[in-house]
Amino acid sequence: MVVLVTGANGQLGQGLQFIAPNYPDLHFVFCSSADLDISNLEHCQAVFSKIKPNYCINAAAYTAVDKAESETEKAHLVNVTGAQNLASVCKQYSTVLLHISTDFVFDGEKKVPYTENDIPNPTGVYGQTKLDGEKAIQAVFENYYIIRTSWVYSQFGNNFMKTMLRLASERDSISVVNDQIGTPTNAVDLADALIQIIKSQILNPKSQINFGIYNFSNEGQCSWYDFAKEIFKINTIKIDLKPIPTSSFPTPAKRPKYSVLDKTKIKSTFGLEIKNWEDSLKTISI
Prior knowledge:
single chain; alpha/beta; 6-stranded parallel beta sheet; 9 helices; 17% strand; globular
């Protein structure tokens, strides 16, 4: 089985490369944006005609949440046009698409975890383009898994954990918002969940009934302040960490106040056992 991965140099792409050797029965083809520009339909067709993948994991995305507010066209090109292009070539080559989406499709006004059936209401350009990308895929064909995730971090690339560790080496004091609640997601855990979905599909080829939208993150919930506190605790870093409200740290894009995702559906459908976010954080060594 051939699994094509877009966005190979991103956190998820590198997470998939990290665990790919554990799955010798799957042949992974990793494509960076230079290898496969998903915003170019002809480029997508050329790559698919050569590789003919059974599965495509779309880990390519425009994820600069704040920059998206002023780079709307760039965000749309990757998150919407790119998603539509991949759906089109996946349909043409009978490829199953696994597409990564985000908690930012929600407005964060709920007080309990979001399910796949909750109505999206993005508050910024990034969330809107990711939602429009979901809709673009759904308009093309049905052989997709759309996985909404949140607060992705890892030992790879740029992310909140890496930023906190860098700042701790430069400063004596750090202020972090404590009134945005969500769940950190280890990119390697997300990568493994995607492979489990593929393995489940291979074993049950008639499981088209399972196509659709799913939530995935680690278990539990915390604020960004709590997350930072745990990062410093695990890495035995002593620093003056101060909690602040979102109002004290204004950003171009509005963040959801609460974006915890309900994982009941993905756990029951694919039998996934998901680590608590604190336990998963401990598995990373920088």
